[in-house]
Design a protein that fits this description.
heterodimer; A: 635 residues; ABC transporter involved in vitamin B12 uptake, BtuC; two-stranded antiparallel ribbon; B: Rossmann fold; 4-stranded antiparallel beta sheet; 10 helices; binds adenosine-5'-triphosphate; binds magnesium ion
C-alpha cells in the first residue's frame, strides 16, 4: 500500500512537469495549429542556464532562477520572432512542424556547444532530506515541483480566462482570420504565446532538474512526453493537457514500478498511438468537431525543377563517372568510410524523397525503417549466420509489412497529424531498440556484425562497399526516375498538393500513398541493413528519431522532389564534420540551422536553386541571342 | 433516343440550417450540352459535389448511363468517365502545365508503376504518345507556348482552361464544368463556345455551370435553372429566358 502511494506521488511529481510542457505546447497549438517540437529544448536550456548562474557564477538561487527564466523567455521570443512567426505566414502546417523539429535540433546543438555533452545535476531548492508526511517520504523538491506547477497552471488559467490578453489569444485560437479582422494582431499574439510557452518550459525544467540528470539532448525526451500528454489530453480545453500530463506521469510510474521501466515507454507510446487513431481530439476532450483549420489552405508552391532533355542526362552520366573515380583519387581510409556512409544514407533519403518530396506525405519516422532493416538483418546474420543478402531481404520484408500496417492505420490522417503518427511510430521503434536488450543488445548496441557479402563475394573494404553501393544507387535512381517521370509519379505529385483534385481525376489516393510509403520503407530498410554491415556495429542512436530529422535535413538541403538532390545534402552533412574534425561539435547545431534556414528561405533546396539559376542563365542567354515573343503571348 | 447520360434523382443537401439543394431532379441527354444556371448561392456547385460524391447527399442519387453512383468514391466515379472541374481552378502547384494536363490521363494509362520504373519500351512509347496528345490539347486552347511553365504562373482564366484540358485528357464520356469561362475575355469566351461545341461533337456530354448568358444561349441545348436550392425552370435557352420565375430570381438577386 505504502509502495503504491509512493509510486503515485512520484508519478504526480513527474506528471506535473509533463503537464507544464503540455500546457506550453497546447498554448501554441491553440493559437497556431502547430505542435512546437522545440518545447522540450527550452526546458533544458532554462535548467542549464540556471545551473550556470547558480553554480558557476555563484548567484543566489532566487536570482539565478529568475534570470534563467527571463533569459529563456527572451531566447524563445527571439526564436519565434525570427523563424516561427514569419514562417506561419507562408508555410503549410507540415513544413511548420518540420521547422520546429529543426528548432529542437538547433537548440539542442546550441546547448551542446555551450554546455558540452556531459550530464548536469543541479542542487535541490531546499536540501536533500525528504519530508515525512504520515509515513510517506516525499522529496522536498517534489513539493517544489508540485507547488510551482500549481502556481503556473493557476496563473495561466487566470491569464487565459480573466484578462484581455487571454481573450485575444482565445479569439486567435477560435478563428485566426476573424481575429485578424477584429483588429487583433495575430502575429503578436503568436509571439506572446511562444514566449509564455518558453517561460513555462523553463520553469518546469528548472524545477525538475535537481531530480534528473540533464544533458543537451534530454529536450527530445521532454518534447515527447509533453507531446504525448497533449495528444492524450486533447487541446480543446485548458484542463486537457494538464490532465494528460498527470495521467501520463502516474501511468508511466505505475508501469515502471510494477512491470519494468522499459514498459513505461511502451505504455506511453501505446497511449499515444491509440489516442491518435481512436480519439484524435484527445481522451479528455468533449467529442465535438475539430475547428476547421483555416491555415490548412496555405498552398505549397514550389519552383519547378525539370531534369528532362540531354543536358541533365549528360550531367548525370558525368556525375556517376566522377563518383566512380573517387576511390582512385582518395586514399584516406577515414574519408572513404565517410563516403560509403554518405551513399548509404542517400539511399534512405531517396526513399524519403518519394514519400515527402513527391507524394507530400511528411514522415518523421524514416529512421525507424533503417532500424527495422538494420536490426533484423544484423541479428539474423550475427546470431543465426544467415547470409547478409538473405538477411537484408528479410529486413526489407519486415519493414514493408510495418509500412503497410502503418499506412493502413494512418490512412485517414493528413498533414501534421500524419507527421505526428510517424513520429510516434519512430519513437516506438526507438524504445524497442533500446528496450529489447536480449535481442538488440540494448543501448550498448550490437557488435560483431559481419561484412556485407553477395554469395561468396565479401565486401570487406570500404572501397568494395563504395562501388557496390554506388552501383546500387545508380540502379535505384534510374528505377525511381522512370517511375517519377510517368503517370505514377504525376499521381504522387498531384496527391502532394491537392488530394481532392487528384481523386477527381480518378487517382486512387490511398493506394498511391501506400505505394509511396512502401518505397520509403524498402529503401530505408535497405539503407539500415547496409549501414549495419558496413559499420560492423549497430546501436539505437545510429537509427533513432534524431536520424529521421537528419535525413529530412539532407533531403531539403539538397532539394526535395529532385531525387538526386539528397546526395548533396547527405554529402554535406556527413562529410563536413569528417573533413573538419573541430566542426563535429557543431554538427547538431548546423543540422538544426539547416532545417530552419532551408524551410524559411530556400524551399527548393540547393540543387533546385542551382538548377533554377542555370536555367535562368540559359534563358537570359537565349533571350539575348534569339529574342522570342513568348512573354507577350500570355492569354 | 438513348438512355440519358446523367439522371439526377431527388438530391437534398442541407448545411446546418442552409438548404443548399432541395429535391432537385433532372436528366441530361446523351450527347447534349446542358447549362446549369442560377444566382450566386443557388446550389450549383453543391449539386456537382453531390453528383461526384464529394459530399454525401442527405437524400437522392445520381445515375450515370443508368448506373447508380450512390456510395461510389469520387475516384471511382471519375474512372467511370464522369469528369469534373472546379469553380476555383485547382491546377496542381509545382507541376508544369503539360504535366498538369498529363495527370488527367491517369485513368487511361495502361502500363503501370513497375513497367514505367523499368523504362520498358511500351511504357516509354505510351508516355510519348500521351505527351503529344496533351500538347495538342494545349495547342487547341492556345496555351502550348506555356507547356513547360508552372501551371500556377498562368492567369486564372488560363488555369481554368488547363483544367478543362486535364479533364479532356481522361477521354471522359461526360464533363461537369464549373464556371469554366470565368476570367476569359469576350473574344476568348466566343472561342471557348466553339471548343464546347467541338467537345460535344466528339460525343462527350457536357453539363456546364455558367454565369455568362450569351455563352449559355450560344451553346446550350438545354438550360436548367436553380434558385435557393430548388429547380425552378428547365427547357430550351430561349424558353427559359422568357420564364417569369427565372427573370424574377435573377432580378431579385440583383436587387439585394
Ligand atoms: N461546405 C459547405 N458548408 C456550408 N455551407 C455550404 C457549403 N458549401 C456550400 N454551402 C452553402 O450552400 C449554398 C449553395 O452554395 P453553392 O456553392 O452550391 O452555390 P453556387 O450556386 O455554386 O454559387 P456560386 O454561383 O456563387 O458559385 C450557399 O448558401 C453556401 O453558403
Ligand atoms: Mg459555385
Amino acid at each position: 500500500m505504502d509502495q503504491a502511494v509512493q509510486i503515485i506521488i512520484g508519478g504526480i511529481v513527474q506528471g506535473c512537469v509533463f503537464a507544464l510542457i503540455a500546457l506550453g505546447l497546447s498554448l501554441i497549438y491553440r493559437v497556431t495549429g502547430i505542435i512546437n517540437l522545440a518545447q522540450g529544448a527550452f526546458c533544458i536550456f532554462g535548467a542549464l542556464l540556471g545551473y550556470t548562474f547558480q553554480v558557476t557564477f555563484n548567484w543566489p538561487m532566487p536570482l539565478a532562477i529568475l534570470a534563467a527564466v527571463a533569459g529563456t523567455t527572451v531566447f524563445g521570443l527571439v526564436i519565434a520572432r525570427t523563424t516561427f512567426v514569419p514562417g506561419l505566414a507562408y508555410l503549410p502546417n507540415s513544413s511548420m512542424l518540420m521547422l520546429t523539429a529543426g528548432l529542437l535540433t538547433f537548440i539542442e546543438g546550441l546547448t551542446l556547444v555551450l554546455w558540452g555533452s556531459q550530464p548536469y545535476a543541479t542542487p535541490t531548492f531546499s536540501g536533500e532530506r525528504p519530508l515525512d508526511i504520515f509515513g510517506v517520504l516525499v522529496p522536498t523538491q517534489g513539493l517544489w515541483i508540485a507547488g510551482i506547477s500549481a502556481i503556473v497552471i493557476l496563473a495561466t488559467w487566470f491569464v487565459m480566462g480573466r484578462t484581455a490578453l487571454g481573450k485575444a489569444l482565445a479569439a486567435c485560437a477560435e478563428n485566426p482570420m476573424a481575429a485578424q479582422i477584429m483588429g487583433i494582431d495575430v502575429p503578436r499574439m503568436t509571439l506572446m504565446s511562444y514566449g509564455i510557452s518558453a517561460m513555462i518550459a523553463a520553469l518546469g525544467g528548472i524545477a525538475v532538474a535537481p531530480l534528473m540528470s540533464f544533458q543537451f539532448d534530454t529536450g527530445s525526451f521532454f518534447t515527447n512526453a509533453g507531446f504525448i500528454a497533449v495528444v492524450v489530453g486533447g487541446t480543446s480545453s485548458f484542463i486537457g493537457p494538464v490532465a494528460g500530463g498527470l495521467f501520463l506521469g502516474v501511468t508511466e510510474q505505475l508501469a515502471a514500478g510494477y512491470v519494468s521501466s522499459l514498459f513505461a515507454d511502451g505504455v506511453a507510446l501505446g497511449l499515444l498511438i491509440i489516442t491518435l487513431l481512436w480519439r484524435p481530439q484527445g481522451l479528455f476532450a468533449p467529442r465535438r468537431a475539430r475547428r476547421h483549420d483555416v491555415r490548412e489552405d496555405v498552398r505549397v508552391h514550389r519552383a519547378i525543377v525539370d531534369f528532362r532533355g540531354h543536358g541533365p542526362a549528360l550531367a548525370g552520366i558525368a556525375l556517376v563517372i566522377a563518383l566512380a573515380a573517387i576511390p582512385w583519387v582518395i586514399n584516406d581510409g577515414g574519408l572513404m568510410s565517410s563516403l560509403v556512409i554518405t551513399l548509404i544514407l542517400f539511399i534512405s533519403v531517396l526513399g524519403l524523397d518519394v514519400l515527402m518530396g513527391y507524394a507530400g506525405q511528411v514522415s518523421l519516422g524514416q529512421a525507424a525503417f533503417m532500424a527495422i532493416g538494420g536490426y533484423t538483418s544484423a541479428i539474423l546474420a550475427t546470431t543465426y549466420g544467415v547470409p547478409p543478402l538473405a538477411a537484408t531481404s528479410a529486413g526489407i520484408a519486415l519493414s514493408l509489412a510495418c509500412a503497410l500496417v502503418l499506412s493502413l492505420v494512418t490512412m485517414r490522417l493528413r498533414g501534421a497529424y500524419l507527421a505526428l503518427a510517424t513520429l510516434a511510430f519512430g519513437l516506438l521503434v526507438d524504445s524497442l531498440t533500446v528496450g529489447l536488450t536480449d535481442l538488440t543488445g540494448g543501448p550498448s548496441g550490437l557488435v560483431g556484425i559481419p561484412s556485407f557479402a553477395i554469395g561468396p563475394l565479401v565486401l570487406a573494404s570500404p572501397t568494395a562497399m563504395y562501388f557496390f553501393t554506388l552501383a546500387l544507387i545508380v540502379v535505384i535512381v534510374l528505377v525511381l526516375l522512370g517511375g517519377m517521370r510517368s503517370s505514377f509519379g504525376r499521381a504522387l505529385q498531384a496527391i502532394r498538393t491537392d488530394q481532392t483534385a487528384a481523386a477527381a481525376l480518378g487517382i486512387n489516393v490511398p493506394a498511391h500513398k501506400m505505394a509511396a510509403f512502401a518505397i520509403a520503407a524498402v529503401l530505408g530498410s535497405l539503407s539500415g541493413s547496409l549501414y549495419a554491415f558496413d559499420f560492423h556495429f549497430l546501436s539505437p542512436e545510429m537509427v533513432a528519431t534524431p536520424r529521421s530529422f537528419e535525413l529530412i535535413a539532407m533531403l531539403i538541403l539538397g532539394g526535395d522532389g529532385t531525387l538526386i538532390g539528397g546526395l548533396i545534402g547527405a554529402a554535406l552533412i556527413t562529410l563536413l564534420p569528417t573533413l573538419f574534425q573541430p566542426l563535429a561539435l557543431y554538427k547538431t547545431l548546423a543540422e538544426g540551422a539547416i532545417l530552419v534556414i532551408v524551410f524559411r528561405y530556400l524551399p527548393e533546396g540547393l540543387l533546385g536553386r542551382g538548377a533554377w539559376l542555370v536555367s535562368r542563365l540559359a534563358g537570359a542567354l537565349m533571350e539575348t541571342f534569339a529574342p522570342t515573343a513568348a512573354a507577350d503571348k500570355l492569354p | 433516343m438513348n438512355a440519358p447520360a446523367l439522371t439526377v434523382d431527388g438530391f437534398v443537401k442541407t448545411f446546418g440550417g442552409v438548404h443548399a439543394v432541395e429535391d432537385v431532379s433532372f436528366t441530361v441527354a446523351d450527347g447534349s450540352v446542358a447549362a446549369l444556371i442560377g444566382p450566386n448561392g443557388a446550389g450549383k456547385t453543391t449539386l456537382f459535389n453531390l453528383i461526384t460524391n464529394f459530399y454525401p447527399a442527405d437524400a437522392g442519387q445520381a445515375r450515370f448511363y443508368g448506373a447508380s453512383l450512390a456510395g461510389l468514391a469520387p475516384e471511382k466515379i471519375a474512372r467511370l468517365g464522369l469528369q469534373r472541374t472546379f469553380q476555383t481552378a485547382r491546377v496542381f502547384p509545382g507541376m508544369t502545365t503539360l504535366d498538369n494536363v498529363l495527370a488527367g490521363a491517369h485513368r487511361r494509362v495502361r502500363s503501370h508503376g513497375v513497367r514505367q520504373m523499368l523504362w520498358l519500351p511500351g511504357a516509354r512509347q505510351e508516355e510519348r504518345e500521351l505527351a503529344a496528345e496533351a500538347q495538342a490539347l494545349l495547342d487547341l486552347v492556345g496555351l502550348s507556348a506555356f507547356s513547360a511553365a508552372a501551371a500556377t504562373s498562368l492567369p486564372m482564366g488560363a488555369q481554368k482552361l488547363v483544367e478543362v484540358c486535364r479533364a479532356l485528357m481522361a477521354r471522359p464520356r461526360m464533363l461537369l464544368l464549373d464556371e469554366p469561362a470565368a476570367g476569359l475575355t469576350d473574344a476568348e469566351t466566343a472561342e471557348f463556345a466553339s471548343l464546347l461545341r467541338a467537345i460535344r461533337d466528339n460525343g462527350i456530354t457536357i453539363l456546364v455551370v455558367e454565369h455568362n448568358m450569351s455563352l449559355v444561349m450560344d451553346v446550350a441545348d438545354d438550360v436548367i435553372v436553380l434558385d435557393l436550392g430548388r429547380l425552378i425552370a428547365r427547357g430550351a435557352p430561349a424558353e427559359v429566358q422568357r420564364d417569369a420565375r427565372v427573370v424574377e430570381a435573377y432580378l431579385g438577386a440583383q436587387m439585394e
